Amino acid sequence: MKEVFENGMVKMEISNGVLFQYYKEGLSFNLDVSKQVAADRLRFLNGRCCPVIVFNEGIVDMDIASRDFFASEEGFKGLSIVAFVETMHTSKVLISFSFLEPSNPEINFISFDDIDEAIDWLKIKEKALLGALLN
After folding, report:
1. pLDDT tens, 40-65?
2. How far is CA 107 from CA 7, 61, 65, 67, in A?
3. By C-alpha distance, which of 133, 79, 134, 125 is closest to 105?
4. How far is CA 28 from CA 56, 57, 89, 120, 125, in A?
5. In angstroms, rounded to a whole number, what is the distance separating the alpha carbons of residues 33 and 91?
6. Cβ-Cβ contacts under 8 Å for 18 (sequence gap 6 or more)
């Protein structure tokens, strides 16, 4: 059974222990929007920590403060690893140059063109994280 949360900025679903996060079209991120999305995610997760697949085709802009926030511990709280699925060239450029390269968050993340590849990567990384915790 899927759990779903949706508001004017984001739709989130949890399925098989994975959070799927879809940003709404035309979304511009400033620090207030970023903190609201993170707070909504934490409420939705209700104390759980899980891997996430982010679909960010809807994002049109993200300022530096937002990028830095999402790269911080507060910004990725509740997430174990992050896979971005980028099907549009503009979203690939935005995520690569605005988030992945300059901010270097302390969480495993990668960007994919294909949802199936992202899911496979999450499974491998989750097993590795669990193994490290048990050792």
Report:
1. 999 999 999 999 999 887 788 888 89
2. 26, 22, 18, 14
3. 79
4. 11, 12, 17, 30, 30
5. 18
6. 50, 51, 52, 53, 119, 122
Tokens representing 11? 């739709």
pTM over 0.85: no
Q: Structure tokens of 121? A: 């990567």
- Specify the DSSP element, H or E, that contains 55: strand 50-55
SS3 content of the chain, % helix, strand, coil (to 5): 40, 30, 25
Mean pLDDT, rounded, of the chain:
81
Q: What are phi and psi of 97, to 5 degrees?
A: -90, -20
Structural contact between residues 96 and 122, judged by C-beta atoms closer than 8 angstroms: no
CB atoms near residue 26 (< 10 Å): 9
Are 60 and 95 contacting, i.e. CB atoms less than 8 angstroms apart? no
CA distance 69 to 90: 21
Q: Retrieve residue 10's tokens.
A: 């984001």
